[in-house]
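To: structure desk
From: M.T.
Subject: fold request, one chain
Message: Could you run this one when you get a chance? Sequence is below, nothing fancy, just the single chain.
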Amino acid sequence: MEPTISSLQQPIQSGFNAFSTAQEVIQGIDLTGKNVIITGGYAGIGLETTKALTSAGAHVIIPARDIEKAGKNLTGIQNFDLEKMDLMDPASIDAFAERFLSSGRSLDILINNAGIMWVPLRRDSRGFESQLATNYLGQFHLTAKLWPALKKANGARVISVSSYGHQMSPFNFEDPNFEKRDYDTLSGYGQSKTACNLFAVELDERGKKFNIRAYSLHPGSVYGTDLGREEPTELFKQLGTHDENGNIKPEVEARLKTLPQGAATTVWCAVSPQLNEIGGVYCENCDIAEIDRGQIEHRFDEPATIRGVQPYSIDKKNAEELWKLSEEMLGFRFDAK
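Reply: Done. Structure tokens follow.
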């Protein structure tokens, strides 16, 4: 049966492309007086996102586990605040959100950027698998707690930095925490990113009456992030991106996005007026992504082919089911009203 998918999930010919940079996308946009929260906004594409949004006048709040490391990375950037928060610690999320809400500020843009990838099996204090806890459940929790500030903005956007990795696995509703099945790190990563996409679908549906729109995105295959730092080199060899000595192939590296290019789609989703009447979609290369129904040939050694969105990850029924399961797992209701 055909999944229930938004008719908006199709490219709109934005005028940008895979090589556009965050600074090109932000050109002409004035964010003076706007408040932005970016998880992981101190490293990789998150740092580039911070640079772009602060350059346009936004005030950026960056929650981080390691304040010292984050502070060093942010040297030279103006107009930001660093706050302590750990996405795998629910009490930490609550405390951060309460501090922000108590300030009385509105929240114009929430960018759920922080994530981990391809790690060994780890669980948080609740028994949740770490990739699911960090990449999705922590984001759901944070967004729920910040909801009053998002409503106050009257025009907020919530951005979930997802990944092409969602194609590695649909969401496993029967065993999301690998309690009954053998752990596979790629499946764990894939379902966490599928969850990000589904979250954007349902969040947008619930939020648009408050003028809150939601998006998920694939930043592209980006060189220079430390996301894959724990992954065995053998996996990269299997994907065809690295040689027998474990070094990335020069011809692959040359076709990867730079960090400023990797942050561009996040920034586009956050600020583009082209999305004023569109939400709940998965984006890539500074445009809305094409639905992948098997017509796209994917090769990991050819980064330009790593694109498209799987129907199961933007299916409205799956999104509704995941929302309910997330509330059950976290032990609170995200009423979004």
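Reply (cont.): The longest helix spans residues 185-207. Let me know if you need anything else for the meeting.
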